[in-house]
Amino acid sequence: MAEIGHGGKEIRERILAPEEAAAKVRGLPRIPVRSQIANEIIDIAYGWFCPLEGFMGQEDVEAVCSRMRLKDGTVWSIPILFDLSQEEVAEHGIKVGDSLCLTYHDQPMAILEVEEIFTYDKGAMCQAIYGTTEEKHPGCARTYGYKDVFLAGPVTLVNRPVINPPFEPYFIPPLEMRKRFREKGWQRIVAHQTRNVPHTGHEWLMKGAWLQTYAELPIEKPLVGVLVNAIIGEKRKGDYIDEAIILTQDELKKAGYFGDHNHMTSLTFWDMRYAGPKEAVFHAILRTNLGLTHHMFGRDHAGVGTYYGPYDAHRLLATVQDELSITPVYSMNWLYCPHCGEITSEGLCNHRDEWQKFSGTVIRSIVQDGVKPPRLIFRPEVFELVLECAEKYGFGSPFVTDEYLAKRTPVFTIPPLQA
Ligand SMILES: [Zn+2]
């Protein structure tokens, strides 16, 4: 059965069989890639980036910047680029028509067939995608960090990544994910994008979205699922550690706040661009390819600082809604009302003066102090697990430290290629 992804194109994995792979990489120039590019190679090869089959050429980049589309008209909001320096191009004598063996930590990972070599004005790209050219915008900083020359062309994985513990069960590529959704009998699945350990406000974001997504469907057996899809990419100091994020999200199900009938946790490799509205459209595309039918978007989705208005993403999504095959679910804000004695939404009860909003800072200080918080703020099982993760994976901290960055086990490794 053909699995149709974004843009109406069939999702096909681009992965060579081991016997074929060894022969194909023999003699090719070996080009090391950094983690961002390795993440994107995985996304291309497994279909997260469908309809892309490789890194973008100049016409696609131009169309994405000027029209938020690929050159063929398919909605696409963020350029996917492979960069090299002039020196590297010269050193290997790389020209159009060549194939390159891309390596990650010295192991062959993928073949790039070079169809195009080009340059692009990074400032113009920043303005078009991020709405600013300021270097302090993390997306701009990433763009300015690209080397000077871009290489475009199809990418094929020669070596599957090995997903290291505790992440293995959560790496579920698009084709496998769609199979699991069918097995569960879910007719609608709503995506929850996260880089957080869940407090009850997050839990209710998901429960609210589940109710919104359920709508008029019959209730005899559960037909709607929430897919937590954690973004795993470059870490910054002070972020929650990846292990704590993924395991605590899953714990909400294991501890019964959700169940197998309506909840699943998974990951996507992606380095956040913080492109706000443009990134919201991009997340919708990623999750379409994963087989989701609905996607939660809260206030200032994937935003940073004060670059984007709280509902800019909702407005941009509305302009392309007809071309996306995923329905946005605009999430309400959940908070704790001591008068009601429960979690409620801004649109529900009217004890405005008593509301206690979830503040990231307060939650962080609770976690930092390790003093057990009220169960209406943090589920005890989740809280215990955060502390456990800090010990087991975080060198004593649930937040990213220099030590974590230096010594953590990588989420995936590329094994030696079998000859
Ligand atoms: Zn109330």
Automatic annotation (TrEMBL):
UniProt domain ATP-sulfurylase PUA-like: residue ranges: 6-160
Keywords: ATP-binding, Nucleotide-binding, Nucleotidyltransferase, Transferase
GO molecular function, one term: sulfate adenylyltransferase (ATP) activity
EC nos: 2.7.7.4
InterPro entries assigned to the protein according to its UniProt record, in alphabetical order: ATP-Sase_PUA-like_dom, PUA-like_sf, Rossmann-like_a/b/a_fold, Sulfurylase_cat_dom, Sulphate_adenylyltransferase
Sulphate adenylyltransferase catalytic domain residues: 170-388
GO BP terms, alphabetized: sulfate assimilation
Pathway: Sulfur metabolism; hydrogen sulfide biosynthesis; sulfite from sulfate: step 1/3
Reaction catalysed by this enzyme: sulfate + ATP + H(+) = adenosine 5'-phosphosulfate + diphosphate
ATP-binding among keywords: yes
CDD domains documented for this protein: ATPS
Family from the record: Belongs to the sulfate adenylyltransferase family.
Name of the protein described by the UniProt record: sulfate adenylyltransferase
